[in-house]
Amino acid sequence: MSTLHQPRPIELELPSGRVRAHRFGPDDGRLTVCVHGLSANSRSYDFLGPELAAHGRSVVALDLRGRGWSAITGLATYGWRNHARDVLALATALGAERFEYVGHSMGAFIGLELARQAPGRVERAVLIDAIGIPEPASLLPILAAVQRLGSVHPDADAYVSAVQRLGIVTPWSPVWEAHYRYDLVPAPGGGVRPRTDRAAVFEDMTYGATQVPRAFWPDLTMPSLLVRAGVPLGAGFVVSAGDREDYLRRVPRAQAVDVDANHYGVMTHPATAAAIRSFLP
Length: 281
Description:
The chain is an alpha/beta fold. It contains 9 helices and 10 strands.
């Protein structure tokens, strides 16, 4: 991989606080903003970022506040609405009035909020495995992944092994290895712990439980693509078959593709990259 297509960190001061992002591709290409899931970080785009940047895009993957190496801000500063404002501020800081958007999991819900707040700024939206209320059985593995936050481990290898033993990130790959190691900081008294803030994640979980994602669908006036994980997470799907069909029926400029992977594996599957490349001009 060329240096241009490796993740290059950038730091930005937004009205809400300092954020870190990683850029793939040229600085002056068409801007594509990528946003991760509930307890993830920007490095979850280490596979898709280079794939999209290879076509001349400037792909910028954001650490949401409270995640990765972005600022941890106070209570009542999170939620889809506030994260969407950060995305708009980031695009403005990078000199882009209009941009493409790719969001995974909670990042997809932030994309729905973006479509409501500023539809004229989002050229196209890619929603990876989230458009409605997940099937309840799919939430148990996600909650299990969240439980790692705040935990202390002897070293980075022990932490990564503990995450891998959960068995929900399949297939395991160097992308996920780098993603989880990126988030670690020394723990007081020894060992390491994730830097991602447990309180921020739980605030976003609580916020999400009060939202009705389908109510945002009429705001998707731009072309949108649903990339649905065709393999269940645990015993359920994050995007049900019914939601997929309703999304295609009710959202005029919508497309959808199913990928043979689960909610995590969809982020490193070649079919996901191919579908997004085909959808983006």
